[in-house]
Amino acid sequence: MSKQPLIDFFQKNSDMSLQTIINITNHFEDRRFLKNEFFLREGKVSDLLYLADGLMRAYTFDLKGNEVTTNFFAKGRQVFDHASFFLQTPSEENIQAVTDCVGYSITFEKMNAIFHSIPEFREYGRRMLVKELVSYKKRTLAVINKSAEQRYEDLIKDDKEIFQSAHLKHIASYLGVTNSSLSRIRREFSKR
User: Fold this and answer.
1) How many other C-beta atoms are found inside a 10 Å radius of the C-beta of residue 99?
2) Is residue 192 scored above 80 in pLDDT?
3) CB of 37 within 8 A of CB of 96?
4) Which fold has domain 4-118?
5) Distance between CA atoms of 105 and 80, rounded to whole angstroms?
6) 79 membership: H or E segment, kind and range
7) What is the DSSP-derived secondary structure letter of residue 81?
8) Domain limits, the chain
9) Residues 30-44: pLDDT tens digits?
10) What 3-state class would DSSP assign to 145?
11) How far is CA 133 from CA 136, 181, 186, in A?
């Protein structure tokens, strides 16, 4: 499988030279996941995956045993449990393919070796972590200070492809609403 999508991703998101990027991508392994296959199961330690095509979702269980979707990963995103990957601790989440997926993965050990040997990659990693931290912060604040309708609208603007493949019950749990509330919100939006 060609690593061109991974090379394109690094070129778009960093200032590294093409030769440096090719050197880095040589450390990644091709990965394919069938729909419903797990990239990560709760209790296992996370690798990092660049998703070249497809859709994945992260989820956990609430105190009543209900699935709660915590994140969606669409084409062109890095997929991993940040705490599990960087702390090398068992994950508290599952990450599962919503569609057939193609990507490239790397272990913590290989990633660390590249961080220590290529300063430009270390800077890229720092910028990407900051970007992810900001994203998580915005999502946390949105649950507190935005209505369900506003969160739905933001999701449509930011990640429209989720609506093409994900189950509505997963979208509802991600937005923090019931299935019936999501149906009502969708009806209201369709009238606009």
Assistant:
1) 18
2) no
3) yes
4) Jelly Rolls (2.60.120)
5) 10
6) strand 78-79
7) -
8) 4-118
9) 999 999 999 999 999
10) helix
11) 5, 29, 29
Q: What is the dihedral of CA 126, 128, 133, 139, to 10 degrees?
A: 170
State the sign of the Cα–Cα–Cα–Cα dihedral 85, 88, 91, 95: positive
Express each pLDDT in 150-165 by its tens digit: 999 999 998 888 999 9
Indicate whether this model's pTM tops 0.85.
yes
Give the largest CA-CA distance in the chain: 55
- What angle do the packed helices 179-190 and 168-175 form, to 10 degrees? 100
CA angle 33, 34, 39 (to 5 degrees): 40
Place of tokens 């949105």: 142
Distance of CA 97 to the CA centre of its chain: 11
Residue 46 makes CB contacts below 8 A (sequence gap 6+) with 40, 80, 81, 84, 85, 91, 95
Q: Are 78 and 26 within 8 A, CB to CB?
A: no
How many C-beta atoms lie closer than 10 Å to residue 50's C-beta?
Answer: 23
Q: Say if CB 50 and CB 9 are below 8 A apart.
A: yes
